[in-house]
Amino acid sequence: MLYKGHPDNPEMLSLFVKMHETTPGCLRGVRKKIQLTLKVHNTNPTNYYNDFGVGKRLHPMWLSEKHTEWGEPALATLSSLEPFLNQNQASLSINMIILKSEVDPLPPIAAPGLSPFASYFNSPEFADVQLQVTPSFEDDKEDDVPSAPDEVRNAISQDNPIFYGHKNILSAMSPMFRALFTSGMRESYESVITIQGVDAAVFTRLLRYCYTFDIQLHSVRDAYGILEAADRFQITAVREEALRYMRQEITHDNVWEIWSWADKFDCEKTRQACLEYVGRYLQELVKHPSWLHAQPKVIKAAFQIEEGVMPSEETLYDAIMAWAKFIPVKQFEPDDKSNSPPRDDSKVSIHAIQGDTSSYDPAYEVVEATSPSSESVNAETSTTACFIEDRKEGLAEILQYIRFPLMDPAYLANNVEKDPHVMGLPGVRDLLFEAYRHHAVGKTMDGGSFRCYPRRHISEEY
């Protein structure tokens, strides 16, 4: 795609390459790492000084079903190209090298309809055990339950439903069930076994998978509920499919949560997918509402990115200050004991942070840190002058990865040094000393840390 005067850069020539599907769904799970070299030059130079040429070699980038476009928004100014365009003397060359291709295949799940046990799902015929499901959350809090299709939820009694099961089938599909049935404990001999802490709708779908080899995911929110249950019951194929689904659905709204889930469930492949996405979009992500709900561990990893579309260090500092002072009433914190469903960031508007309540949602109201016991909730004030205690603990460590030496000295003096809450954090004075010393000595300074060197942008001009 060639843009002359693109709306985002009206005075520049923009050039993008886009990957298209030849058949519907053919890009599902496919990723290609490409390197683009773009160049515009004069095809009829009369002398050396008229040998016009401009180009860029872009940093390698992964293209996938969700991210099919890559290019340069500001390849050259239109004014510099106009003389050659008018005389038909401009030539455009695009060199694309596919460095690597990957396919994220479906996990080894047999195709639906091939299982000989499908007719025995929740059937009393030959059943030798009954499973009674008791959720750990209150039944009347419907909104706090991971989503499931209406036809599934409506087909289930919410009063601790009982399912028919067959020990041999369940043992073959789930190591947890096998251990339960063969442990020699009381549950091994009971005809009715109570399973606590799982949503009945989610359990129904996992149980159906054990008999039919079929699982359908409908959203990232849905995939999280399935993932948590599949991990608990050690149904590996469903666990991997839920994680694979999340990798294909990463967006600005959910990347921070998916990254937290990747850490929680120790999935390096999903963690790496989030890292690559953040490296490409960090400049936009730190201004997105989802940023305010990111976990400290994830932010720390994001700030260690060396290469990508990176904002300035001042922008990163402002973003982490907004994060540290933000008070969500509801927030999702992945841990081993959490059964909380994922948050929907589409309900949170960045305008609410700035005092605009036009898109305000009561489910994500914010309160003043100075009066935590107050029953009133102020939707217009989502930040405070001081840091939130549970975020303050990780803030000092996160600040170690902001490159203060690359900030303007005036910004350091007026924005960082004048904030008593920041200056009271351990290690901050040492960071400022390093920054001021770097500005005073410059490149001749010995022993400078990684903070003294700029991050690498993803495109290079030549």
The 3D shape can be described as flat
> What is the rounded distance between the termini?
22 Å
Average residue pLDDT? 77
**Estimated helix fraction:** 25-40%
Structural class: alpha+beta
For the largest beta-sheet, the strand count, sense and barrel status come to: 5 strands, antiparallel
Fraction in beta strands? 15-25%
Low-confidence stretches: 137-146, 151-157, 331-381
Describe the structure.
With 462 residues, the protein is of the alpha+beta class. It has three domains: 2-103, no CATH class; 118-244, Potassium Channel Kv1.1, Chain A, CATH 3.30.710; 251-460, no CATH class. It has 16 helices and 13 strands. The protein has helices at 78-86, 150-154, 167-173, 175-182, 200-212, 220-232, 236-248, 255-264, 268-285, 296-302, 313-324, 350-353, 389-399, 409-416, 420-423, 428-441; strands at residues 2-6, 9-18, 30-42, 53-58, 61-63, 69-77, 90-103, 129-134, 162-165, 192-196, 307-308, 456-457, 459-461. The strands form four sheets. Strands 3, 4, 5, 7 and 13 form a five-stranded antiparallel beta sheet that branches. A hairpin with a 2-residue loop joins strand 1 (2-6) and strand 2 (9-18). The two termini are 22 Å apart. 28% of the residues are buried. The model is unreliable at 137-146, 151-157 and 331-381 (pLDDT under 50). This is BTB domain-containing protein.
